[in-house]
Amino acid sequence: MLTAIITMCILAAIFGLVLGFIAIKFRIEGDPVVDKIDALLPQTQCGQCTYPGCRPYATAIAKGEADINQCPPGGEATIDALADLLGVDSKPLNPENGIEEDVKTVVIIDEEICIGCTLCIQACPVDAILGAAKQMHTIITDECTGCDLCIPPCPVECIYIVPIKDEVSTWKWPSPQAPQMSVKIQQKSAGAQ
Amino acid sequence: MSDTQTKLWTFPGGLHLPEHKDISTNQNIGNVFIPAKLVLPLQQHIGESSELLVKTGDTVLKGQLIAKANGYVSVPLHAPTSGTITSIEEQAVPHPSGLSATCITIETDQKDEWVDIDKPADYKIMDPSALRNRIREAGIVGLGGAGFPTFIKLNPGERTVIDELIINAAECEPYITCDDLLMREYASDVIQGIQIMQHALQAKRCIIGIEDNKQNAYLALQQAQKESNATTIEVTSIPTIYPTGGEKQLIKVLTGKESPSQGLPLDIGVVCQNVGTAVAISHALLNGKPLISRIVTVTGNGIKQPRNHEVLIGTPINELIEHCGGYDNNVQQLIMGGPMMGFNLLSDQVPVIKTTNCLLALNENDSSSAMPCIRCGACMDVCPVKLLPQQLYWHAYAKDFDKIQDYNLFDCIECGCCTYVCPSQIPLVQYYRFAKTEIWAQERDKIKSDHARERHEFRIERLELEKQEREERMRKKKAALQKNKQKADPKKDAIAEALARVKSKQKNSVVESKNTENLTKEQQQKIEEIDSRREKQSPALNKKNDNPNESDKNNLTE
């Protein structure tokens, strides 16, 4: 009886030491779940989810404070990916956060009107606006995420939203029309579904 | 060697299709005609689009370089005839999207005046890399339809040994006959082009695979091979099964080797080139002519005079069709490429480009709507890559792009066999194309979002750093102020000391009056009385009482 207890204690001590060593040696910095969630978000940093950027939203999701359906730029695809990652049911986008736009956009500055106030530069989350005080500003469209955060601060309303033009190299084949039975049967099957 | 029957292999699946090839093989290749204007898109190949070298108003000569290669996966572009550049702007290009891209428009002068062309090169003494450069400078891309820069395919890398060079002369798609006619009329050029490629690749053996429905071309090539005594080249007739002309399928049939999934033929020591490319290489090296024209099959029951034509790159398709007698009255659709793998053109106001092998105008239009999948498995039986088309379809339909890649979507060659046999007429290939482009778009978005994240994090870091710097500056300023205060202290001390001195003097001024010793009680009382009265009367008086002696006197006198 005593031998058994001692053996168990020794084993417990050994395993404790091993686990303790591993915990220190293979310590993971940061929260990997937050990283994984953050990797799925579109990184527009638009704040429509009510958090100040994609990573804070990811942190909130990981903590269970935010729902997965608060990201309008990511839309359905992002919600599905998040649901997949977190093992929860997918749900439609929360309309309070905004609606999913079909066409991706960027902004441009009307350089004639710009007065060089630098307010938009301070608002841009990805440093995509170039300019200096009392100098004309311009947008580096390749870097623009289309978050539109620069539009409200502009005192002269010289920033416009423009859709990203489809190019031959980025064009996508449309999804074919779903197969259809004759109208009569289709109604039936729709009812069954 | 060509007489010996080479052992052939087979690939899974495939179809026997109605050929419709005789429509356009009755006549020889039509001669080049010069249209009023040529429209040259800067991108006619896979990779980066070429970089402009000319501007509006420039006059150019035939064969003159008008755009140079931009990056490694890119080739230059030459003027197909002499004339004036009238515009450089966005114009519709032959693409399933019907979108526009930057094009150079040349108004031709009908003189067809050549620029000084490169001297014919003796390729046998040339270094393979110099040879590849020459091929690149001639703007040659794969003429089979994909348009991949040829010089890259001829560069296997130093370590890779190329066992076989396979020449794709199968031309397996219905209607298309441009390679057939090319082989009949340019057989010796084909052999010469192959010898140049063999030299560039240092390949010991070359097999030309021709489908057995092109007997004339087969005989012509055999003849040319015998004449040029090219013993390392084998001309092989292969059974006509669609899609034998697929690169990996042809390699399997001719060598028995199977290309790895999502790999290149290069991985198994094989390089495959189109027969038209061989001719273009021969013209570039032996005649010094860049790629400025190609042979295009204009065919289908929607064309009045179907025929193969040698066409300048950039010729507007509507003019080419006009040149072929125009459309039949009932024409329904115009396809670039073959009926299986080609795509519908939204307009005929687009130019012929380097990869335009066939223009197919048809009177019928397959607008039958798709019906639900009945899981018959016919698509699986015909798939030449042994994929599961039905599974791919389900996942593409559900937009489950992770799952669809598990079923090796990217090994699909889009041959169209599955769509052809589908009894429910589901446009399967269109689903795969949709899924592929969607996945590519997602990958692009991922790269972009990673970049945005990096920039956002950098911005936060920068703002934090700026804040810290500002705080540091403030702290330093405060510290400096403190120091200055300390420096100023001696003066203040002096002032304070002086003040203290004065105060103490004032205090001391209320010195004890003299002659107060030995006073009588009466006198003492009197003094106290006076003192108290004086204080009551005016406390300020005490202060005025600067002269103690006087006060004493007063005291005394009173």
Give short descriptive properties of this protein.
heterodimer; A: 193 residues; mainly alpha; 3-methyladenine DNA Glycosylase II, Chain A, domain 3; 4 strands; disordered C terminus; B: 558 residues; Rossmann fold; 3 domains; 5-stranded mixed sheet; 4-stranded antiparallel sheet
Structure description:
- Helices cover about 35% and strands about 5% of the residues of chain A.
- Chain A is mainly α and about 190 residues long.
- Chain A has two domains: about 10-100, Orthogonal Bundle (3-methyladenine DNA Glycosylase II, Chain A, domain 3); about 105-165, Alpha-Beta Plaits, CATH 3.30.70.20.
- In chain A, the strands form two sheets. In chain A, strands 1-4 form a two-stranded antiparallel sheet. A two-stranded antiparallel sheet of chain A has the order 2-3.
- The radius of gyration of chain A is 26 Å and the shape is elongated.
- The relative contact order of chain A is 0.11.
- Chain B is an alpha/beta fold and about 550 residues long.
- Chain B folds into three domains: about 35-360, NADH-ubiquinone oxidoreductase 51kDa subunit (Rossmann fold, 3-Layer(aba) Sandwich), CATH 3.40.50; about 380-480, no CATH class; about 520-555, no CATH class.
- Helices cover about 40% and strands about 15% of the residues of chain B.
- In chain B, the strands form four sheets. A five-stranded mixed beta sheet of chain B has the order 13-12-16-14-15, with helices on both faces.
- In chain B, helix 4 (about 185-200) packs across helix 5 (about 215-225) and helix 4 (about 185-200) crosses helix 7 (about 275-285).
- Chain B is elongated.
Layout of strands and helices, then pairs:
The complex is a heterodimer of chains A (193) and B (558).
Chain A: H1 2-25, H2 32-40, H3 54-63, H4 75-86, E1 105-109, H5 119-123, E2 129-130, E3 138-139, E4 159-163, H6 183-192
Chain B: E1 37-41, E2 51-52, E3 59-60, E4 65-68, E5 77-78, E6 83-92, E7 100-108, H1 128-137, H2 150-153, E8 164-169, H3 178-185, H4 187-201, E9 205-211, H5 215-227, E10 233-238, H6 247-255, E11 270-274, H7 275-286, E12 293-299, E13 307-312, H8 317-323, E14 333-336, E15 343-344, E16 358-362, H9 378-382, H10 389-397, H11 401-406, H12 417-421, H13 428-509, H14 521-537, H15 539-544, H16 548-557
Parallel strand pairs in B: 8-9, 8-11, 9-10, 12-16
Antiparallel strand pairs in B: 1-7, 2-4, 3-6, 4-5, 6-7, 12-13, 14-15, 14-16
Helix pairs in contact in B: 1-4, 3-5, 4-5, 4-7, 10-13
